Amino acid sequence: MLVDLFYHDFRLEKKWTARLLLVYLAALVTGVLLFTMAIGLSIDWLYWVPLLISLFVVLLTLLAGLWLRSRYFSLNRVKEKQTLEQRSAQLNTEISRRTAYLTQLKSEFETIHKNQALANDKRQAAYHDQVHQLDAQISKSREAEKNELVKALETLQTSYINAGMRSASLFDASIAGIGPKFKEKLLSAGIRTAADVSTARILNIPGFGEAKASAVDAWRAQILTRVHASRPTRLPENQEHEIRQKHNRLQRQLEEQKVAAKAAFEADLARIRLDADQREKTNQAAREKTQAELIPFKKNLIEVKHTLKEFAGVTIWNFLAYCMPLKQGKTTGAYMMGLIPLILALALGPVFQSVLALGSTASIIVVSIPTVTNTPTITPTFTGTVTPTTTGTSTLTLTPTNTLTPTITNTPTITFTPTLTATATWTNTPRPTRTHTRLPTATNAPSGGSGGDSGGPTAICNDGTYSYSQHRRGTCSHHGGVREWLRSVPP
């Protein structure tokens, strides 16, 4: 059995649908008959009647459609379905919004990890740069300490050697070949100690040659060797302690800076990790909350969809099917077999009326187009040519030649006529032109001829031709009559 899905009595809708079908049928038959009559009888105003009928049917169809639509949406079952669909749409919207929010939270969670790794890498790079700079300063301080100790020792040794050389008196020295007399000369030259000895200075003293200068220089070398061997090998303890203490203070400061940098580095790492942990906890809490909110929404959506299945047949098309003027059959198939022709009639009725309206409109447009009437004007131009002929008997024979040159002039005339009638008007305007051309011709013809008198034409006809009749009776009888007599002829 065909189940009533709408819980509604369709008697009113069936009644008006049946009436609409009758109107369609009557309008279609009437329109086709009137259109055929207008074509067959050539009654122009009759084309307007099918057009008006078609427009009326189209308007009636629109009004009927709006009325049925309002009836459909006023049903309680339809309202319940709309409420469920709205609820389903709202639930889908909430689920989509929270799903999108979960996706956003997941993306933020991944971003937290990425930012934490980037912050750690950045802070670690800064820490390594700082430690590298401090280590370079410590190495530089140690190198400066070493250089200062070496330089201080060299200064001490140089002072010791210079003092030892200055303390070695030349006057008390025992030098082979250098007696008191030569010592006096050396003292007079300013050479008193081993530090003052110079080979060049000694050679400038009178009485000193290479041998004596070498002896004095050898003595100086012995003194230098003895003093160099006894020079101090390290700085005094107090001086070395002072130098080392100065550089140790700087190195301790740099080491303390390294410790402080490491502590700051570890603190920053801890802060970055703590901040990331807090963000992760907040993100995780938001995700858990959103997922908890999704559960009832999804549950309600499943219930709504399950309920909507009961309203699957509540559609505008089924409503229109129930509105058809048919009795419910025992089976759905039987009902549908009777329903299909009615639906086709309702669907094709406006189509046929639209086609009829287009045909009527086209016919009205065609009959309202102005008619173009061509009025050709025939203007004949006559040329009369007189040809004199000289015969061997000294007789001059004039042989006239008539040449008819018609000229057709088309003068279009626009005539507004409510009917399709082609009217052609021919206007003959003869314009005779006489041309006398004397062409002397030697002709062996007799002086008289059967075609006419030697005196030439006797009359001009209304169509422009010449007549050589020797009697008035019957002249130009086939050329519209006589227009002008050229000479007198007997009746």
Please summarize what this structure is.
Helix content is about 60%, strand content about 10%. It has about 500 residues and is of the alpha/beta class. β6 and β7 form a beta hairpin.
Please tally the helical runs, counting DSSP H or I stretches of 4 or more residues: 9
Instruction: Give the biggest beta sheet.
Output: 5 strands, mixed
Strand % is 5-15%
Instruction: Assign the structural class, choosing from mainly alpha, mainly beta, alpha/beta, alpha+beta, or little secondary structure.
Output: alpha/beta
Give me the count of strands. 8
Order of helices and strands: HHHHHHHHHEEEEEEEE
Which term fits the overall shape? Answer: elongated
Distance between the termini: 112 Å
Task: Kindly provide the radius of gyration, computed on alpha-carbon positions and rounded to a whole number of angstroms.
Answer: 71 Å
Helix content estimate? 55-70%
Average pLDDT reading? 78
Spans of at least 5 consecutive residues whose pLDDT stays below 50 are 329-338, 372-454
